[in-house]
Task: structure prediction
Amino acid sequence: MKTRITELFDIRQPIIQGGMHFVGRAELAAAVSNAGGLGIITGLTQRTPADLAIEIARCRGMTDAPFGVNLTFLPSFRAPPYPEYISAIIDGGVRVVETAGRNPEKYMTSLKAAGIKVIHKCTSVRHALKAQEIGCDAVSVDGFECGGHPGEDDVPNMILLPLTADALSIPFVASGGMADGRSLIAALALGADGISMGTRFIATQEAPVHDNVKQAIVAASELDTRLVMRGLRNTERVLNNKGVEDLLRIEQERGNSLTIDDIHDQVAGIYPKVMIEGDIDAGAWSCGMVAGLIDDVPTVQELIDRVVAQAEDLIRERFAALLKVST
Ligand SMILES: Cc1cc2nc3c(=O)[nH]c(=O)nc-3n(C[C@H](O)[C@H](O)[C@H](O)COP(=O)(O)O)c2cc1C
Result:
């Protein structure tokens, strides 16, 4: 398929794999890029900028196709050395950066000077417009249903995407709740130029995470996610589990006096325990409502081929039939 997003990133299909902490490593990013989408390495999963440089080189060893790096600017217990991470990205010859969280404005000059295309992830029309204004090449619009941080406005994609389409002139992808060819067609119909998937890509053969995580996503229904850290204005959609139930209880007990230190044990250092050791009850880890639509663990190539085939089928068969004049 050809859209403004495939043209911008020089990819074959309008499908992006969003950055995911402890999931977006070279194996997954390369598999997505090899299958025609845009794979993205999650920058901050690499403990140091030097580690990121090695991960970029590893990815390049696995694919000749374009891939990107995600840089997330969220509140954290210790601020990462962003300029050094950006140097690793530039020196590694990466052509696309997905920024997320806070406004990336202060890093735009160095990224653009290096010829890097920037796609900023946002959860509201006003932030999408701001991204366009500061020179981002595209945005990824995360609706309320998304895994990870849906922001604080709670607007689902059915409303957010057409509003974004009306407001924006740069290309954008729909993120949150995307799983198959139906999602892709719906996103295109609502004005997006492609889709970005997170949770769906975790349940693939190549995702370098413990099998318990993949099986937990396959087993989960659309009712099994919870919103945590709302009181800190750092809302995250996570898969419910024993650690999350503890977290929600603490949040309820503390009410307005909640601080990040109160929930340290349920949110800090959880990702390696879950993704590497397979301890899926350890605490809060991001997962989208789309888990309800996921019931298998295909290869990335199978997944992308299936999304595109179903989307093309919908256009050729279902929609063409709707236009046939009855005789
Ligand atoms: C396990 C997991 C970890 C994530 N980590 C990050 C991250 O570090 N940075 C980021 O920008 N987005 C992160 N996300 C959000 C995804 O990039 C994407 O926006 C989101 O998953 C889309 O919603 P979906 O899961 O319904 O497809 C994460 C999502 C998941 C499921």
Residues 222 and 292 are 4 Å apart (CA to CA).
